[in-house]
Write a structure and sequence with these properties.
single chain; mainly alpha; 6 helices; 84% helix
């Protein structure tokens, strides 16, 4: 669970960084590009720990490098000062796949049910919900931004609600891990 702590601190850093740039009327898109890279690294390490099958763990480790190359090409080719919707969509698909691998592995051993007291279950549920809920938001954010800012604002408010649900699941997981909710 220490990787969940790392994610929370990295996320907090980038959130403060991006909000500070926005308050100074500076383009904060480079921060979002960097946070995507940090998210995939931290979550890949976390899923390598959670998933037990050796072949899937190797696949997860090898999957990070193409994503990093893709993120760099996306930032350089399409521009680091624009919404990184292609990178976010790719990352959402990867996180949904990682979550599905975890759930499949957990469902194969029925003796481990119920999972409500398992902190890793809450982490993966939060990740799965966040990325599956925001997949189309990430995919169409560039198109929506080009059409109208009012609709874009509404969509990013929805993103904030999904982020709140992710952090709620992570909080439950951290509380379970510390023994506070047992």
């Amino acid at each position: 669970m220490r990787w969940v702590y790392y994610y929370c601190w990295v996320s907090l850093f980038f959130e403060v960084f991006n909000k500070s740039l926005a308050l100074l009327f500076q383009n904060n898109m480079p921060g979002f590009h960097l946070s995507s890279v940090a998210d995939i690294i931290v979550f890949s390490i976390l899923f390598r720990i959670l998933i037990q099958a050796p072949s899937k763990r190797v696949w997860i480790g090898l999957n990070v490098f193409p994503f990093l190359v893709y993120a760099v090409v996306d930032a350089l080719y399409f521009g680091i000062f624009r919404i990184n919707s292609f990178t976010k969509v790719f990352m959402a698909l990867v996180m949904i796949t990682y979550s599905a691998l975890y759930f499949r592995e957990q469902m194969q051993c029925f003796s481990s049910l119920p999972k409500m007291k398992d902190s890793s279950f809450w982490v993966v549920c939060g990740i799965f919900f966040y990325y599956s809920s925001n997949l189309f938001l990430f995919a169409f954010s560039g198109v929506i931004q080009a059409s109208t800012t009012l609709v874009m604002s509404d969509f990013w408010h929805l993103h904030s609600v999904n982020l709140f649900i992710l952090y709620t699941c992570l909080t439950i997981a951290l509380r379970l891990e510390s023994g506070w909710l047992n």
